Amino acid sequence: MPSRRPLYGKAVSLGQAPISRPASSSSTAQSEQQESNVGETAQHDTAEEMDFTAENAACFAEQRKELRDALIAEAKQLYEQALALNERSSYAVNGLALFTEDRKIKRQLFEQAVELDGDNPYALANLGGELLGDDNSRALHCLNHALEVNPRLFYARLYRSKALLSMGNIDGAISSVREQLEWRPGDSHAIRFLAQLEIHRARRHGRMLLL
Predict the structure, then answer these.
(1) Sign (positive or negative) of CA dihedral 117, 119, 133, 130
(2) Residue 148: which domain range?
């Protein structure tokens, strides 16, 4: 049987991929140059985005600082106005004490606030905090009274715990922090402090058993 002449003059086997001509060196170089340009453009855009983000973050931080400073200045002015209206205002004196960095003046103002009103829980708690390490016994008295007047005064319990720890009463310190967590279960600072106290107590008991 005569063979059938293939179309187009050449026999092509089934499934054979067409042979592509290799790209010329000039076209390859042009393609590489285009890819390089694209990469440089992407890097440039990324750098600009990073600069813009950093600039925004710095601007936002500056705005927050300005807002904070304005609020602090306004709060101080309100306390000054309150004291001008009533020079025996324990709460105004206590509030003004929060705006001084001089520890001696701060303590004097807290002392004055407590003298003006011995039941001002904020002044009592703040004075107790200032007395820590110097007069732990008096600090504990102030803090206990502050919590009697206002049981919700959360930071007073942490101060009290530190006072008890300084006086060697680690069980009382742990009890005070646990009481704090009953009022504020999510207090991360109290949780960390409690863990540290329990480790300290366990180590102390371990040393006592070795004696």
Answers:
(1) negative
(2) 86-210
Tens of pLDDT along 145-166?
999 999 999 899 999 999 999 9
DSSP one-letter code for 153: -
Is position 96 within any domain?
Answer: yes
Report the alpha-carbon angle 26-30-35, nearest 5: 150
Task: Dig out the tokens for 156 from the structure.
Answer: 């007073």
CATH number for the domain harbouring residue 189: 1.25.40.10
- CA–CA gap between residue 115 and residue 37 (Å, rounded): 76
Tally of domains within the chain: 1
At 18 the pLDDT is 47
Please tell me the predicted confidence (pLDDT) of residue 55.
73
Dihedral-angle region of residue 9 (phi above 0 means left; psi in -120 to 50 means alpha; beta otherwise): left
The mean pLDDT value for 121-143 works out to: 97
Spatial contact of 154 and 185, defined as CB atoms under 8 Å apart? no
